[in-house]
Design brief:
single chain; 380 residues; alpha+beta; 2 domains; six-stranded mixed β-barrel
Length: 380
């Protein structure tokens, strides 16, 4: 028999029993949905955990070697800024303050916020404004608020809105839009470095990070080596992202829990698909035996099974990804804090695991079909 005819026959045999076909499809769809959903949640968490790094966009970050995440700041001495500015290959270096504070809104409600203090001279790392003028950040008590998912927690402030921060008066002079939202559920305020260290109680040292721009790309290695001699750590934007991701993957329970849920999803999908497909093969043994009796070769029966499993797995994978995409889109409309994002890595991993499910399921079916003897079928 010709291959197209074999595959057409395999398709008709597969979809003829709508109940079994639906059960196969649901098993793979459910497994793909859970695997993509779990890994998408983790990808969203990793993306938001380094949102400050992405929004600031510095080429090199200088920090204490013990820093693991951007929120885990360890103050550095002020002299370090001048020392780094003197390194050959540094175009400029700017201080950045990062800390938490408690603000009192006009309605009497207290709200935790994250405060980023930008270099007074250059404002390196400043956000793009959708309302207001960046020059107004130099006005008395001036702050810029980020319009993100946490923005309503500050009672949707507009330009001119006042609040209290450690008994200091604060005034909103701009509303900013950033590319990446934060992970920890607190609104973000920008101000100048000098105002941040004045308004927020600090230890003896106040430098959270130093943002460095090299003169050329080849100077990065030189700068990192010079900073290391000073006893501190210099990381590029991408390296800092990776450091934060590694922390959440390997030093918190988030990565382990997501991995376990993904493995459980794989096992559930595999068990449902393999068992259902094996039952499907058993119920159609007479048809496979009849095909073998009229001249179908063993490899042609194998092609039929591989086609059936592959078709079901790819259809289930597509339905699972589509269902997950729909759920994430709806969740983001209703829950602004929802962090899940679908990446090519998520899709690739889920696809590989679905193919593994297909391989194991087809192996079980092929072993049974290869052993069929037409005599046994007709005798029964």
């Amino acid at each position: 028999m010709k291959l197209p005819g074999i595959l057409r026959l395999a398709y008709k045999l597969l979809v003829n029993d709508k109940g079994k076909f639906a059960a196969l499809l649901i098993g793979v769809t459910f497994a793909a949905f859970l695997m993509v959903q779990m890994t998408s949640m983790f990808a969203g968490i990793l993306s938001r955990s380094s949102s400050t790094v992405a929004n600031i966009g510095a080429s090199i970050w200088v920090m204490d070697p013990a820093v693991q995440t951007v929120a885990n700041t360890i103050p550095m001495p002020d002299y370090l800024l001048d020392a780094i500015r003197s390194i050959d290959g540094v175009r400029y270096a700017a201080p950045l303050y990062s800390g938490g504070a408690l603000v009192k809104l006009n309605n009497g409600v207290y709200q935790s916020v994250s405060v980023l203090g930008l270099d007074d001279t250059s404002l390196v790392g400043r956000p793009a404004l959708e309302k207001g003028d960046i020059d107004n950040i130099y006005a008395d008590n001036a702050f810029i608020v980020v319009d993100d998912a946490e923005y309503p927690k500050l009672d949707n402030p507009q330009i001119g809105t006042e609040f209290e921060l450690n008994d200091f008066r604060g005034v909103i002079v701009g509303v900013a839009k950033v590319n990446s939202f934060g992970l920890f559920g607190v609104p973000t305020l920008y101000t100048t470095y000098s105002r941040a260290i004045q308004y927020i109680p600090n230890s003896r040292f106040t430098l959270s990070y130093i943002l460095v721009e090299p003169k050329k790309a080849s100077d990065v290695a030189l700068i990192k080596a010079a900073v290391a001699k000073l006893g501190y750590l210099a990381l590029t934007n991408e390296e800092f992202d990776d450091r934060i991701a590694d922390f959440y993957k390997y030093q918190t329970g988030i990565g382990t829990n997501i991995m376990l849920m993904t493995i459980i999803s794989f096992i559930v999908g595999l068990s449902i698909s393999a068992q259902t497909f094996y039952t499907f093969i058993l119920e159609n043994l007479d048809k496979f035996g009849a095909l073998k009796a009229i001249g179908a070769k063993g490899r042609e029966l194998v092609y039929m099974i591989l086609f059936q499993v592959t078709f079901t797995s790819l259809a289930g994978y597509g339905l699972g990804v589509g269902l997950c995409t729909l759920l994430i889109a709806v969740a983001r409309l209703r829950l602004p804090d929802y962090a899940a994002i679908i990446t090519f890595a998520n899709l690739g991993m889920a696809f590989a695991m679905v193919l593994l499910i297909a391989a194991i399921s087809s192996y079980i079916g092929i072993r049974r079909v290869i052993k069929i003897e037409p005599f046994d079928i007709f005798r029964g």
